[in-house]
Amino acid sequence: MTGEASVAAGSTIDALGQFELHPVLGHLGEALRFSQSPLFMLIAAAVVLVFLYVGMRPAAVVPGRLQAAAEISYDFVHDLAVSTIGENGATFFPFVFAIFFFILAGNYLGLLPFSFTYTSHIAVTFGLAIMVFIISILASIRFQGVGFLKHFLPAGTPVWLAPLLVPIEIISFLSRPVSLSIRLFANMVAGHVLLEVFAGFTIMLAGLGAFGHVLAIAPIAINIALTALELLVGVLQAYVFAILTCIYLREAVAH
Amino acid sequence: MYRTPRLFLFAAPLAAVPGRAVAAGMPQLNFHDPLLIGQVVWGAVIFGGFYLALSRFALPRVERVLTNRRTRIQNDLDVARKAKAEADRASAELLSARHEAAEQARAHVERIQSEARANAEAHAAETAKRLEAEIASAETRITQSREQALSSLSEIATSTTQDLVSRLIGTQDEQTVASAVKRVSA
């Protein structure tokens, strides 16, 4: 969230201003359509890559703390991918790893003051979800051929139910990227709006004099609790996105 | 679980704050903003680069370290297992050597014991034989003495009879007395 003018005219709270996109790098950024959102994507990718690079640089048999952290993150996503997708999980592991850490780093970077949460933009989350959707369709065709279409009629269904079930299955299949993207987007927006609103309350109360100064402690306390909650939500949403990706891919590679 | 209080908290300020924030619309839905589409394109490029860097360099590096560790631990375990097998074999050899030595010692003791027993038996048998021979010779001598005694008995009897006969009848016929004595003593 941004610390920018969140209190407009001293009486209302501009909870959504933090999501506005502004070009960075001046005219060059404007010309390249480069806003703070891609900037933080770059930072997030760099943080993850530097974390892995610095963590694994000792390549020690007995790892230190940072190396252990890097190895744990590797093992965590690797186990997730292999146990969910199955024996072909290793093929998709780098993809799942990229998804998980791209979202996690985005969620956590967004909690820093003056930063920007790119996962709070439906365009970004929908782009990620569509990518997962397309890749799972391509994997279906690659692993099962056109036969994957029979998933739209669950095995053992009476034929006369097909006209009813096939459209339902198709709709539920097509709604996957929508639910996947809206879940992440809504969670991040809600959390950041809450943080902004309570921060705004603090400023409004502080304007009321000495009594207000005392009362203003309450929203700060709530914001501390909300930050803890956002830390949980950030990792949870990244995990949910990654595990749903794995589940869609398992359906794609299963026979 | 966490949704309910969160949604409540979310709804409370929205209800409390006059509608400007909502009315202004969400910047995320302002699709006329070229920056909004721009971030999707940039996002695709950055995510693609991120994916390539991870799959080509970062993750294989982690995997190499993990594989190295696994093989190293495996090798160390193999070495330890080999050492243990060798120690087991040496210990088994030692045991069997000790067992063998004990067997040999027992056999040795038995041989000496049986030799001693055989010696003693031979010695006893020899003594017995010698004693038997002595007994036999003694018996022969006894028999001889008795026979001798018995043969002189007839002479004594004859001479006594002759004396008795000559004292009784004053005369005597040696031949008759002798034959009579012989008849009686036979």
From TrEMBL, chain B:
Keywords: ATP synthesis, Cell inner membrane, Cell membrane, CF(0), Coiled coil, Hydrogen ion transport, Hydrolase, Ion transport, Membrane, Signal, Transmembrane, Transmembrane helix, Transport. Component of the F(0) channel, it forms part of the peripheral stalk, linking F(1) to F(0). The b'-subunit is a diverged and duplicated form of b found in plants and photosynthetic bacteria. Residues 1-23 form the signal peptide. It is a single-pass membrane protein. GO terms for cellular component: endomembrane system; plasma membrane; proton-transporting ATP synthase complex. Belongs to the ATPase B chain family. Residues 80-148 form a coiled coil. It comes from Gluconobacter oxydans (strain 621H) (Gluconobacter suboxydans). The chain crosses the membrane at residues 39-59. This is ATP synthase subunit b. One of its GO terms (molecular function) is proton-transporting ATP synthase activity, rotational mechanism. It is found in: Cell inner membrane; Endomembrane system. Its main location: membrane. It comes from the Bacteria. F-type ATPases have 2 components, F(1) - the catalytic core - and F(0) - the membrane proton channel. F(1) has five subunits: alpha(3), beta(3), gamma(1), delta(1), epsilon(1). F(0) has three main subunits: a(1), b(2) and c(10-14). The alpha and beta chains form an alternating ring which encloses part of the gamma chain. F(1) is attached to F(0) by a central stalk formed by the gamma and epsilon chains, while a peripheral stalk is formed by the delta and b chains.
